[in-house]
Predict the 3D structure of the following.
Amino acid sequence: MNKKVLIVDDEETIRLSLKEGLMDIGYRVSTAGNGTAALKEIKSFKPQVIFLDMRLSQENGLELIPQIKEIDREAEVVIMTAYGDIQTAVRAIKEGAFDYINKPFDLQEIDIIIERVIKNLKLQKKLYLLEKEKKSQSEYMLGEHTSMKEVLSKIDILSSNDAVTVLIRGETGTGKELVASAIHNKSCRKDAPMLKINCSAIPQQLVESELFGFEKNAFTGAGTRKKGLMEIADGGTVFLDEIGEISLNIQTKLLRFLEERKFKRVGGLEDIEVDIRIIAATNKNLEEAIKRKEFREDLYYRLNVVPIQLPPLRKRGRDILILAEYYLQEYNKKFNKKIKGFTKEAENVLLAYSWRGNVRELKNVIERVVILKEVDYIDLKDLPFEFYKNTDESPHKITSVKDDKAANKIFHPDFTLEREVQDMEVQYIKLALEHCKNNYSKASEMLGISRFALKRKMEKYF
């Protein structure tokens, strides 16, 4: 964590001496002589710790605390004063200060306080991430479809049998990693680490050293001995995502480990024995990979002791609407919106859509709609165009001039051609930018307009 400290004091000698001392021991430090300058510095410098003098020349330091918290609620304030008493300390804490320090003070005392703040911030972040992960797990587990009930049943069974190897299969975005976390967190291994490696995200020549570690001088650049995930996770769980991407050489070593629960570090001679659970996941057809001699059949049977097959979202029926409603309420809270739900037409299109990105795609779509729209109910025209462009549900499709029902659906009382055209442009621009990973040149080429025209439209709509 980048340790940044702001000193707010109207005495220049205190500001400068404290700044020099803290910089000498490795902190990044900025200063301010009054409240106005301090608030400006907090916005630009973004300190984690603010040492704030209680009596500035024209201001009461305690009255600045709420304004500081308004700018950055995570920044911690330590009140400094030469007039210390218990009442002032209590008031400072009530106003939101982290701590209270009396002048004169020494540098070591300041350093200890900063370390406490940084440690507290790290703990808060860890708790936040844990809560976020638990919340994410519950999101993906929502639903009433029989296939999901079967998955939840297997999670409970596997959690109570903590030595069984698990293979989780399913398309991208179905929640394989979250199922693995749920199994670990419900098991007796939950207090031990769960370490994760995406086998497709790192070069194959590094997978072995990541898993098993290496000895000093095992290869060029190996200046010291390094423990691998298998050793670090002793007592816990190792999650191997995209297991179908590992090389045959690593497959052989992984098979040996699963059979003997022992391994050697790269360049090592000594067997290391550990107690860990392996949970693997893949979206690859391993049976086809076996036929092509790309995956070892014996390893497949070792991994596939208890398989979990996650269903694609498109095959979960009305679970799509349950999840859509859940995310709608979540993003209503996050973006302070009051969207009540979905029209019947919109629900039909959500149910009919292919959802190639599964739950992850659904979550992103609902977030996008909630951000962009100010409506009571999400209708067809509020969904991305690709959802209904080839269906009879399209709000832009009129079969004939005499088709009053279709016409009324489009030409509602709030209809304006300009807004409809703008909505279409926004949808196509977002699609193009998403596909081109925000590369303006490629997106403008795909849209058939100049890069300058695209930038103009971005400034207009976004």
